[in-house]
Design goal:
5 helices
């Protein structure tokens, strides 16, 4: 793997900014809308975009049942719970807690 060029650095900064800003926007939205509504809207938009990509590429034999289960377990439930938690804590604390999940995964994997 070579060194990162200017384009890669720009993409990394844009991605980091978008991910970081999502916590701010979730904190603002949770004051106006119920957490499940925000989660449903967010995931509906993402599903639509992924659906458009899949439609253009037309992959064969996708395991739809497994993908649906993964979507619910890895996206729907966690984001709904994160948004529900943001009713009680600030966006910065929620972001920090979420960022520690790889660390806790490492710990719990060895229990």
């Amino acid at each position: 793997m070579g060194r990162m060029g200017t384009e890669e650095w720009v993409l990394l900064i844009v991605l980091s900014t978008l991910w970081g800003a999502s916590w701010l926007f979730m904190g603002i939205l949770v004051k106006e809308l119920p957490p499940l509504t925000i989660s449903a809207l967010r995931l509906s938009i993402a599903s639509l975009l992924i659906g458009l990509i899949l439609a253009s590429r037309r992959p064969k034999d996708l395991p739809w049942k497994e993908l649906l289960i993964l979507g619910v377990l890895n996206n729907t439930i966690p984001y709904a719970l994160i948004l529900w938690g943001q009713i009680y804590i600030s966006s910065s604390v929620a972001s920090i807690i979420n960022s520690t999940s790889p660390f806790f995964t490492l710990i719990f994997a060895h229990l």
